[in-house]
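Problem 12. The chain below contains 239 residues. Write out its predicted structure in C-alpha cell notation.
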Amino acid sequence: MKLKVFVDRLSQPARAILIFCKMNGIEFEEVSLDITKREHMKPEFKAINPMGQVPAIVYGDFQLFESHAILIFLAGLFGVPDHWYPADIYQRAKTQCVLDWHHSNLRSGAAPYVYHSVLAPVFDAFSPVFGDTTNPQAAAQADKLLGASLSQIESLWLKGDGTFLHGAAQPSIADLSLVCELMQLQLVDEKDRERILGPHKKILEWIENTKNATKPHFDEVSERLYQVKAMLQKQRTSG
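Solution.
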C-alpha cells in the first residue's frame, strides 16, 4: 500500500511529518494543499479530515489526522529507530508527556502569536481558525504563553548536558514537533524573534541540534517557510 501525506509545507506539523518520513526512508506520496487558497476546506479533503486541517494521511483504507497521532502511527508501522518513539514504556511516557503538553502550551502560544503579528493581513485563508485580522491583544496574550512555554522547556526537559529533550543523544518525535513549531518564528520581525528566543540559549542550541540531526531534509522541507519569510521581509523594507 502507498502512504499518502496531505500537507502544506507552510504548516508546522505538516513539516514534522515530512521530515520524519524522509529521515526514515518511508516511501510516500506528498499531496500538496495550498491553505492560502483554502484547498484544505474543500469537501474532498474534509472527507479525510473533517477538521479541515493539515496534515492528514491515507494508508489503504485507513485515514488519520492530528500530527502527533500520525507520527506515533508511522513510527509503529514502519519500525523506525527506537529513539524516535521509544519502546521502553517509561521513556515513551516521557515523550508522550511532551507531545500532550505541546498543543495546549507551546503551539497555543507560538501559532497565534505569529498569526496575529504578521500573517493575518497576508493569508486570510487562516481566518476560520484565528480570526480575520491582526489582533494586538491576542498577540500579546500569545506572546506571554510562548515565553512561559520556552522557559518550561528549558527548565523541565533541556536540563543537563543532553543534546535533545530529556537528555537524549538523538531526537524523538517530540523534538521534531516542537522545533518545527518554533521555526514558525522565522516569519516575525528579526527584533521580535531575538526578543523572544535570545534569552533562551538552550532553546537556540537545541533548535540547531535538531536541524543538524535531520539534515538535509529539515531545510529542504522548510523551503516554503523561508520563501514566505523573504516575502514578509521585503514587504517590511518596502513599506
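Discussion. The CA atoms of residues 109 and 144 lie 7 Å apart. Students who got a different answer should revisit the alignment rule from Section 12.3.
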